Amino acid sequence: MSLTLADVLALPGLESMRLRAGEAGLDNGVRWPYVAENSGIAEWVLGGELVFVTGINHPRDEANLLQLLEEACERQVAGLVVLTGPTYIQAIPQRLLDAAEAAGMPLVEQPYSLKMVLVTQAIGSALIQSEQLGRSRHDVLERLLTGDYQSLDLLLHRATQLGMPLAGHWQVVQLQLEGSESLFAQGDAASVEAQLARQHDAISRRLRQFSAGLPVQGRAGQWTLLLPAPDAAAALANRQQLANWLNPLNLRLSPLKLFIGLSAAAHPPARLAQAQEEARQALAAARRFSERAGLCVYDELGVLKLLSGVRDRALLDQFLNERLGPLLRHDLHHGPSLMPTLEAWFHENGNLVAAAQRLAVHRNTLTHRVQRIEALCGLTLDNAYDRLDIGIALMIWRLSA
């Protein structure tokens, strides 16, 4: 559970601190207070700090304050606090207020009469309490999602004490961000790490808005959260809301890509571990099947539910090798051609013209490849049972890729 800027302004003893601009950023999480002592802050902050600007150690004219605002936005700090009084910064320039409002960067005015030691002590204590509460809330949710508890009633009682509204029915959502290796191939490690951290923070903030006041479990580009879903209609609304967010997000994230898997609806707290497994299976399908556009719900899996239920992986590998082993070995030695052809043929429901267009090859080339596929596998694509076997084998191959 993070401490937001709105929480800071509501702390006892800090009533004289006043938000002057950037109300849109009041939900920004505050990681720690930082007092700016140099002309700039870019090389001294990591993101999430509440930056205090006093003017004691460095002159703060309008140009410098605007520079600090620009660097604050660039480094994604939680907000700027400008101390005003007769000695150093007499008033906050209107241009600074306008720029902060336009950028959505919270700008708070603090009178010099409010001692910094009291402010930092209040914020530090609140951060420690928030961290302890957050850990307890995450622990409760982790136990529910893994089924690691002895008494569900006691765990739910603890959740109530921690302000976690878990009564009702839920849908588990799992998310995974991929493609970081492409970023590291394009730039130096330090800048890529900073970029990834900013993306992770932005995604985490948005997910907290989705999560109905419950904690979002997340680390290393993976997140899990609960969405209220008492029935199929609510689950459909959840799916649409996430899809509306995901599609434009992935355009901005490229070459990174976020994938989402959702469980079925209407899981009570006692079945959240089952719901998490459903979300995991849906996430695997979202990642492996591009036609799902990065998002899949467990109810949409179809035969993949059966494949995911096979615990003996050797059985699936054996089936794949029996049906498509010759094609896999051919493509391994000669380059990928037959497996992509088979996928395109299935995707286009056997339409040779459409499949050839999908692969950007001549129809005669595609026809020759299809004949080669049938000869190597000993199967006939015109035979319904052979097509069923091949389709299932293709699913196994995609899931294991």
Automatic annotation (TrEMBL):
| Provenance organism | Pseudomonas trivialis
For the Purine catabolism PurC-like domain, which residue ranges apply? Answer: 7-126
Q: What is this protein called?
A: CdaR family transcriptional regulator
What PANTHER family does the entry give? CARBOHYDRATE DIACID REGULATOR
Superkingdom, natural source? Bacteria
One family from Pfam that matches here is GGDEF_2
Q: CdaR GGDEF-like domain location, by residue?
A: 153-284
Which family would the database say this protein is a member of? Belongs to the CdaR family.
Which residues belong to any copy of the PucR C-terminal helix-turn-helix domain? Answer: 338-395
